[in-house]
Amino acid sequence: MNQPARASVVINNYNYGRFLGPAIESALAQTYPHTEVVVVDDGSADDSRLIINSYGERIVSRYKENGGQGSAFNAGFAACHGDVVIFLDADDVLAKTAVAEAVRSFDTPQVMKVHWPLWEIDREGVSTGSIHPKGELPEGDLLPTVLQDGPASHLNPPTSGNAWRRSFLQAVLPMPEQLYRTWGDTYLQELVPLFGEMRTVRSPQGFYRVHGGNAYASISFEERLQRGVEVYDDICMHMAARLGEQGIKIDPESLKKSSWFHRVQKATEQLTSVIQPGETIILADQDEWGIEEFLRGRRCLPFLARNGSYWGPPADDESAIGELEKMRVSGASFIVFAWPAFWVLDHYSQFYRYLKSECALVLENESLIAFDLRTRA
Q1: Does any domain span residue 234?
Q2: d(CA 301, CA 88)
Q3: Which residues form the domain of 93?
């Protein structure tokens, strides 16, 4: 991209007064000189207004009734002027080079999004040593991947790790506000591959704060799953419409079949249909499904587990068999391999042969492979 006249950092805030100051300061401290800072307060009842007002004309402020993240995004975009727009959550912080790196990476008109990883910090702003997301962020033209694997087929950082080209936002905003009271960033992230390319800044350009009140982390697995299905119903509809405009005819229902949330919802229904409440399940899901200790009355243990938490894959086949036997003696009655963790069965071939010879296969499909540990094959 040629040097844009202006970049915008749009901070969306709801009752995050305790974190808001550092977020605003990080936006004002950007090394890129043509950066405006817009703060949208989404009906906060804490001291957020006092904090926002203290910055005077250094920022553009917008106050509105509470409507959720999507509503705040819509209001912030309407108030900003940047050719490049970053939506910054009020509990996060940008590195001072974030805008400059984003602008530099919009290197052709086809680039619609630039993203980067974020360092994780705690409530007090101290680094935990972790990075979000875990894994390499994709770049380039992801439309072929989306057409093959459906929505949620590519890795994305949290809200504060993305920069958007204004023309893309103009095409998809305003977003439906009631549906996207949360997950407004998901709406943008899933639609952008249909409009152009992505670029990745490899070094972290911000800080993702984990403090126990994060909207996504604070809801249960069942709530996340139901919410995800509702959101991706809408996203699949929008995707099909956009693809139709490009001459690609596709049924929204076919997109849903490969949607992560729809697939997990179907799999959990299948799982609970063959395993009764009260049973203990060893769940090998690569720590991706986000199931808590209990799933509809069935206890779930990660594989491998240490102190009830996911520890990582076994060291070798012998370790896998040994851990399985320890858990079976302790009362585990089933082991379930959940997509996308099927690689475990390929990698630990001796372990897999042991399971097939010692235990009864009770479920096998494109999402689940389950063995009854109480019954011999």
Answers
A1: no
A2: 36
A3: 7-217
What's the chain's length in residues? 377
* pTM score of the predicted model: 0.88
Distance CA 19, CA 188 (A): 25
CATH of the domain at 121: 3.90.550.10
Structural domains in the chain (count)? 2
Q: Are residues 67 and 189 in the same domain?
A: yes
Terminal Cα distance for the chain, rounded: 61
Torsion of CA 225, 368, 340, 242, to 10 degrees: -60
pLDDT for position 376: 76
> 3 pLDDT exceeds 90?
no
Query: Could you tell me the two tokens for 282?
Result: 């060893």
d(CA 258, CA 148): 9
Do residues 207 and 289 share a domain?
no
% of residues, the chain, pLDDT over 70: 97
pLDDT band at 123 (very low <50, low <70, confident <90, very high): very high
Q: Are 205 and 306 contained in the same domain?
A: no
Domain boundary among 217, 251, 266: 217
Radius of gyration of the chain (CA): 23
pLDDT for the residue 286: 85
In a domain, 193, yes or no: yes
pLDDT digits (tens, 9 = 90+) for 54-85: 999 999 999 999 999 999 999 999 999 999 99
Q: What is the mean pLDDT of residues 231-253?
A: 95
| Residue 355 φ/ψ region, left for φ over 0, alpha for ψ in the -120 to 50 degree band, beta for the rest | alpha
Mean pLDDT of 89-112: 97
Q: Is residue 248 part of a domain?
A: no
- Alpha helix (H) residue ranges in 277-348: 317-329, 343-347
Same domain, 297 and 187: no
Of 198, 217, 236, which closes a domain?
217
Task: Identify whether the C-beta of residue 298 lies closer than 8 Å to the C-beta of residue 278.
Answer: yes
Structure tokens at 45: 């009842």
List, in sequence order, every beta strand (DSSP E) within 133-196: 162-165
Domain-embedded: residue 262? no
Residues 6+ away with beta carbon under 8 Å from 126: none
In angstroms, rounded to a whole number, what is the distance separating the alpha carbons of residues 89 and 268?
32
